[in-house]
Amino acid sequence: MTKPVSTDSDKSLWAVYVWCVSFLKPYLFLLVLLITSAAVVSAAELAIPQFIRTFIDVTLPSGDRSGYYSAMAWLAGIIAIMIAAGMVQNLLRRMLQERAARDLQVAILGHLRRLGFAYFERTPSGQTLSLVHTEVAAAQNLYRQHFPAMIGSFLFSALSIAIMASTHIGLTLIVIPCFLLYYVFGPMLERKASVSGKEMSQNRIEENQKAYESVSAAMELRAFGAHGWDMNRYNEKVTAHNRSMIRTYWYAYLRGTNRRLTYYAGAIAVFIYGYHLIQHDLLTVGGFVSFLLYYFAAMHRLTAVVTSVTEQKVLMYQAEKLYQFIRRKPLVEPPAEPVRRDSIQGEIRFERVSFSYDNGRLVLKEMDLVVRPGQRVALVGQSGCGKSTALKLIGRFYDPDSGSVRIDGILVRDLSPDSLGHALGYVFQDTYLFGASVKENIRFGQPDATDEEVELAAKAAFAHDFITELPDGYDTLVGERGVRLSGGQKQRISIARMFIKNPAVVLLDEATSALDNTSEREVKSALDRLLAGRTVIAVAHRLTTISDFDVIAMMEDGRVIEFGTYKQLIAAGGAFKQLAEGEAPRKEGAGV
């Protein structure tokens, strides 16, 4: 048996609703105009039954032809006003809903960016895409469908009931118990529909996440011949989503049936009592016809309001994920008073830096390291000793738990994001290329660079020759993630980005480890030219690639345990020599 939604849950949904509606606040003037135009349209629509009442009770019995023409002119005027106001209402409604929907999407994407790298590293991509696409689209339906329609329907219903009461209070009162019959089963059906809607929302997220996983793992699935296994898992998610969707709409149909039963029960009561009133000359035929028109219109709009409220409640279960997301605090907060530097010399200093991820186990343990401007330093050691984590702290992907990371004596956490971004250049093992042209991928390093500057950067990265051999040269589309290029070609484009960006500090994270020997030599030649005169910190497993570096820092268990040139460390005969000779040093408790 499904448990009813708790009061705390209702309060939570109300907070979500208030947050969603808050995106209309900047457009309050448009909202007022929309309400005004809706009121004019409602007044014009409501004037038509009054016209019919007068036409039946006065115009037809009198046989006055001039009165007939006058009535037709009034009807034409009312219709013209209704059409004109309706056009204005639709325009205002479209402007309001699209601007609020845009602002919601921008707010979600902006917050996604503020959450930074830590969020993406800890959250599956499929879940993020579902949030940005499915849940945002659901919340946008509040502006595009429910909220503006609810305002118009509520105004119309309120005015209709007021006119019905002025026509005959007894006839109005008799329909109220019929409408209240809706609430015998209505609340129970609403609760079931709401709970089922929440389950459907969660199942939709899981289905989207599995679809993304299947697309992303296409190569592995093909290599292992596991398409059947993957389809079975996907079918489970689709089946669960379909079942919850069918259940949700089943309750929605039952809710609608319940409303229609009360709707027509009230109509029968109006006919029975209305006949009695007409027979005893307590109500005119025209008055009864107009009342009946008001009743059907009011009940239709009133039930539409109830339906809209219930459907909005289901939407809020989906929007609740957005609400919780937007309230999520980033692990790395921007500095309150950022320090800006137009030029960076490139001194980097780790001072007793400790850091841990979510599991609480320290990856870096009071690490000390000093890199002088223009110095090339390699970080080496067993996997999990904290090398890549150190690079992340320099780029402020994370903040250390204790200790400090400084660039030119300034705390990294105090530097403005722009200053830090311009000072650092990353070359990763897996280079990401956008599905655009070669030229645009290089220009990514400096968006306002000219074509000549792009070409000079490509030549410096030894990429110009292979680019000119491509079908369209620099205008060749590289495909999604650069799928049309080899690993070495992608790396050289990445290095060209760094040339055009011209950072003071270059951070290399296994930049050549995934390349064959020929590609590695080509990329290394490009890197040697890029790194000249810059501060460099490189993470490397192939020790031959860093044998000519100024200094090598041997890391173990989150600390620098040896520091010196390649020859010095080999001569010392310690952990680095063991690593170079392929003998893993014996240790316990290595970091992750």
Automatic annotation (TrEMBL):
<feature type="domain" description="ABC transporter">
    <location>
        <begin position="348"/>
        <end position="582"/>
    </location>
</feature>
<dbReference type="Pfam" id="PF00664">
    <property type="entry name" value="ABC_membrane"/>
</dbReference>
<feature type="transmembrane region" description="Helical">
    <location>
        <begin position="147"/>
        <end position="165"/>
    </location>
</feature>
<feature type="transmembrane region" description="Helical">
    <location>
        <begin position="68"/>
        <end position="92"/>
    </location>
</feature>
<keyword id="KW-0812">Transmembrane</keyword>
<dbReference type="InterPro" id="IPR036640">
    <property type="entry name" value="ABC1_TM_sf"/>
</dbReference>
<keyword id="KW-1133">Transmembrane helix</keyword>
<dbReference type="InterPro" id="IPR017871">
    <property type="entry name" value="ABC_transporter-like_CS"/>
</dbReference>
<comment type="similarity">
    <text>Belongs to the ABC transporter superfamily.</text>
</comment>
<dbReference type="GO" id="GO:0005524">
    <property type="term" value="F:ATP binding"/>
</dbReference>
<feature type="transmembrane region" description="Helical">
    <location>
        <begin position="171"/>
        <end position="189"/>
    </location>
</feature>
<dbReference type="InterPro" id="IPR027417">
    <property type="entry name" value="P-loop_NTPase"/>
</dbReference>
<keyword id="KW-0472">Membrane</keyword>
<dbReference type="GO" id="GO:0005886">
    <property type="term" value="C:plasma membrane"/>
</dbReference>
<dbReference type="GO" id="GO:0015421">
    <property type="term" value="F:ABC-type oligopeptide transporter activity"/>
</dbReference>
<protein>
    <submittedName>
        <fullName>ABC transporter ATP-binding protein</fullName>
    </submittedName>
</protein>
<dbReference type="GO" id="GO:0016887">
    <property type="term" value="F:ATP hydrolysis activity"/>
</dbReference>
<feature type="domain" description="ABC transmembrane type-1">
    <location>
        <begin position="32"/>
        <end position="311"/>
    </location>
</feature>
<feature type="transmembrane region" description="Helical">
    <location>
        <begin position="261"/>
        <end position="278"/>
    </location>
</feature>
<dbReference type="Pfam" id="PF00005">
    <property type="entry name" value="ABC_tran"/>
</dbReference>
<dbReference type="InterPro" id="IPR039421">
    <property type="entry name" value="Type_1_exporter"/>
</dbReference>
<keyword id="KW-0067">ATP-binding</keyword>
<dbReference type="InterPro" id="IPR003593">
    <property type="entry name" value="AAA+_ATPase"/>
</dbReference>
<dbReference type="InterPro" id="IPR003439">
    <property type="entry name" value="ABC_transporter-like_ATP-bd"/>
</dbReference>
<feature type="transmembrane region" description="Helical">
    <location>
        <begin position="284"/>
        <end position="306"/>
    </location>
</feature>
<keyword id="KW-0547">Nucleotide-binding</keyword>
<dbReference type="InterPro" id="IPR011527">
    <property type="entry name" value="ABC1_TM_dom"/>
</dbReference>
